[in-house]
């Protein structure tokens, strides 16, 4: 008998994971603006979908303010479907991964045209910007479907519960299969959120609080004394470094900006003219007078960027648009361009 088969037998005799976890969740669930209370029904699929899209690659703490602003501006999917994409991109600034904002609008329009969200994982996965994880999460949380929801927190909980020592990312298929053995038919949405909360608050990456974990008695990694070591991760290759140039042309009345191409890095966002780092080879937006200010650094998922910033007085630009100083809000720029502005202003 393998260790994992032994764990399953132990769990069956000592209490079901879902039952233990739901009892804990009923008492300790995080209060979040997109959730209904434990055991509740009627979760709004719009709010669940919006929160899940925002939470990709981002923390709950970072998302709260964005979620509140978005739902104040666009309280339902029909309102978001009518929104101007540029306004949505501006409100999204700072959350990163800007293709998500474009897909947000496209998805809202598709859902509004269809008369509402589909209530199955397969139907949800067919919408723009909704992948395997997000479709499962919405189906479970908003529609009570018994779908297996696996994010980074859940991977960590499952790796420890079953003492999976295969490093990530190679272990992902195995962790998803093991997570599926735990997903209950009853209250699957609460269970999915309970797994996330457990990973976020107790089964944390460093120094897991095993002493207060509701699963501590049936956790194989805890029994072996290796909980803090899991999940293991394969060594990461060093990020390649890219270089480029950004130009900031301004005077007392205006600032030169341009809309980036819809596809590609920072797609569709308002930015300062730049070149080199994104595969482009563009000349300065106006002739002469450029002063080198220094360099900003920014880390993307797959590379590190070192961007030289040049500044000049605004005069007869050959491309882009001039925004008045009163109408220019650097908070609507993506994070990289906010760094450029901080150096140039």
Chain-wise SSE layout:
Blueprint lengths: L2 H12 L2 H12 L16 H11 L4 H14 L3 H5 L3 H8 L6 H16 L6 H5 L6 H12 L8 H10 L10 H9 L7 H14 L18 H5 L16 E10 L3 E6 L10 E2 L2 E2 L15 E9 L4 E10 L7 E4 L10 H10 L1
Parallel strand pairs: 1-6
Antiparallel strand pairs: 1-4, 2-3, 2-7, 5-6
Keywords summarizing the entry:
single chain, alpha+beta, Endonuclease III, domain 1, Nucleoside Triphosphate Pyrophosphohydrolase, 3-stranded antiparallel β-sheet, 12% strand, globular
Write a short abstract of this structure:
The chain is of the alpha+beta class.
Quickly give the CATH architecture of the largest domain: Orthogonal Bundle
Q: Could you say which structural class the secondary elements and strand pairing correspond to?
A: alpha+beta
- Following the backbone from N to C, one meets helices and strands in this order, namely HHHHHHHHHHHHHEEEEEEEH
Counted by DSSP, the helix tally is 14
- Count of DSSP strands: 7
Round the mean pLDDT to the nearest integer and report it.
Answer: 92
Strand content: 5-15%
Would you tell me which CATH topology of the largest domain applies?
Endonuclease III, domain 1
Task: Give an overview of the whole structure.
This protein has two domains: 3-229, Endonuclease III, domain 1, CATH 1.10.340; 241-344, Alpha-Beta Complex (Nucleoside Triphosphate Pyrophosphohydrolase). It is built from 14 helices and seven strands. The chain is globular. The strands form two sheets. Strands 4-1-6-5 form a four-stranded mixed β-sheet, with helices on one face. The chain is an alpha+beta fold and 345 residues long.
């Amino acid at each position: 008998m393998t260790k994992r088969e032994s764990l399953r037998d132990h769990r069956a005799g000592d209490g079901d994971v879902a039952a233990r976890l739901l009892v804990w969740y009923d008492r300790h669930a995080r209060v979040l603006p997109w959730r209904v209370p434990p055991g509740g029904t009627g979760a709004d699929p719009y709010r669940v979908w919006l929160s899940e899209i925002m939470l990709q690659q981002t923390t709950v703490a970072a998302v709260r303010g964005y979620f509140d602003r978005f739902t104040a501006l666009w309280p339902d999917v029909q309102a978001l479907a009518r929104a101007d994409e540029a306004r949505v991109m501006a409100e999204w600034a700072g959350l990163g991964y800007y293709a998500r904002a474009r897909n947000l609008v496209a998805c809202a329009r598709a859902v509004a045209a269809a008369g509402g969200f589909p209530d199955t994982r397969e139907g949800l996965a067919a919408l723009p910007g909704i992948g395997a994880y997000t479709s499962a999460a919405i189906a479970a949380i908003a529609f009570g479907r018994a779908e297996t929801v696996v994010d980074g927190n859940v991977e960590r909980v499952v790796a420890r519960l079953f003492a999976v020592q295969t490093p990530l990312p190679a272990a992902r298929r195995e962790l998803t299969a093991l997570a599926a053995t735990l997903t209950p038919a009853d209250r699957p949405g609460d269970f999915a959120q309970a797994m996330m909360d457990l990973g976020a608050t107790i089964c944390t990456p460093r120094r897991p609080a095993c002493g207060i974990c509701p699963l501590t008695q049936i956790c194989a990694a805890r029994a072996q004394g290796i909980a803090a070591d899991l999940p293991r991760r394969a060594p990461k290759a060093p990020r390649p470094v890219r270089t480029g140039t950004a130009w900031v042309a301004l005077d007392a009345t205006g600032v030169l900006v341009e809309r980036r191409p819809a596809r590609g890095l920072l797609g569709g966002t308002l930015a300062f003219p730049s070149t080199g780092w994104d595969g482009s080879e563009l000349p300065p937006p106006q002739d002469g007078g450029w002063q080198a200010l220094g360099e900003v650094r920014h880390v993307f998922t797959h590379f590190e960027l070192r961007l030289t910033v040049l500044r000049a007085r605004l005069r007869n630009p050959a491309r882009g648009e001039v925004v008045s100083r009163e109408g220019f809000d650097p908070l609507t720029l993506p994070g990289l361009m906010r760094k450029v502005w901080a150096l140039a202003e």
